[in-house]
């Protein structure tokens, strides 16, 4: 009896890491489904509302604009069953999406899945470097500022963060290009290949992210150092370092990590703009190009991938918070 | 006077009660509004009129901020772009805030299945990063102001809905509202007397942030040339157009960047909460 009680108490006080995992993963799974449906539906509406005959457009994409005649368009029409009613076409469109059959790019002719495979690596690389850089810049600066709220470092970092938040990533990137590439000539302005190409786009994204995360970290630090448990840890005799490591770090980290979920919106949106600015061969750049070229399968593929990436990153944050904060594991 | 009213403070001592940050934001926004709407009165130039004999000129009396690569008057263009951005901000914020607040109050007050349906709808709109949704809608109707507007408003309303709903749920359960209800006051009075005074400051902060993100979204799409089309004077589009002439006319290049930065800064300052 005692053993059972002890175990029950034990599990209540320190829930296992696996406890309540379903509550974290299920909504995210739903969200992923929603993203697929939303992107699929919007691109389907796009195929139906673009001006001009759909069969001619696809035939022109396949065979080149000079090679299209009525017969070729008819062949495409019967092959893809473009003359069926909208509802039927919509259902089969979603069916294709469900089987991950994203079709072929109208511009390059290659299967969209293959193209996405190339692009994803570049985008993930850029996003990872930017995120890492922002975590190195933002939270440490915020923590240092939060140790002395109202001090010189706090004021300066706040002013810089406000300025950076007012500068959208593309304007910031533009200024960095003008400074480091055009005026100083230290770094390549755009392109991809050498590691030097990483610096400016990653820095642009990282500064935009760090502007927010440094303030979140600062507020979290002020909150924690003003709390009763933190004061108690000091009065019971722990040194400044130990009480920060044992009682501060986790509680400070929680809002910073949780806020990453919000920041991923900035990251994904930033990737679209920054990749275009720096001619980075990733999904964001490809999405913009696909929209300009009216390449529907590519629009669907890239938007879908970015949406799913967003969901995946958020799931990562949820899981990390789940591991960090035992309160979340409580039933 | 009107602006201090808009901030939810009493008009008489409204200015004194504002934080330094908000005062700074108000002054900055006022200046930008003045530049945007007074320029057509004081400086009569068509923002789309090309004069190819006068390209990339330095600021002169005839063109106080110089001319761009097609000889168009930069002052007229920057002011027109500011007006466009502010129009978009006002329009999308109002049309996001009104349904957002209404639905938020209803969902928070009544609860039940309506609450669940609306919550699901909000989650659905949040599933994609906002700019991606706007981008897809912009792709359906390229270069169309209204497609951008619908996309931005569709992203913005969720924030109002969620904040208002959460706050309403707490307030509806409060004893003072319960007491008013027992005295027989109708929902209109309860909203005015108990809900709105609590909601207003948060709604206004959201409005300032929302305006900033609407402006940024439009500029970002213009910048990657999937937003509005030339020859519209739009801040993001102007940056892309003027970038190649950076060496010849740095002042022209600086204008859209500075205008956008100051506009967003002023709105962020207005939205800023007091720091501890």
TrEMBL record, chain A:
Pfam families: BPD_transp_1 (PF00528). The chain crosses the membrane at residues 21-46, 124-145, 166-189, 195-212, 252-278, 298-321. Keywords: Cell membrane, Membrane, Transmembrane, Transmembrane helix, Transport. It is found in: Cell membrane. Its main location: membrane. Residues 120-321 form the ABC transmembrane type-1 domain. GO terms for molecular function: dipeptide transmembrane transporter activity. It is a multi-pass membrane protein. GO terms for cellular component: plasma membrane. Coiled coil: none annotated. Belongs to the binding-protein-dependent transport system permease family. OppBC subfamily. This is ABC transporter permease. It comes from Bisbaumannia pacifica.
Automatic annotation (TrEMBL), chain B:
It is found in: Cell membrane. It is a multi-pass membrane protein. Residues 82-271 form the ABC transmembrane type-1 domain. InterPro entries: BP-dependent_transpt_permease, MetI-like, MetI-like_sf. Its main location: membrane. Keywords: Cell membrane, Membrane, Transmembrane, Transmembrane helix, Transport. The chain crosses the membrane at residues 24-42, 88-109, 121-140, 146-164, 203-229, 249-271. One of its GO terms (molecular function) is dipeptide transmembrane transporter activity. GO terms for cellular component: plasma membrane. It comes from the Bacteria. Belongs to the binding-protein-dependent transport system permease family. This is ABC transporter permease. It comes from Bisbaumannia pacifica.
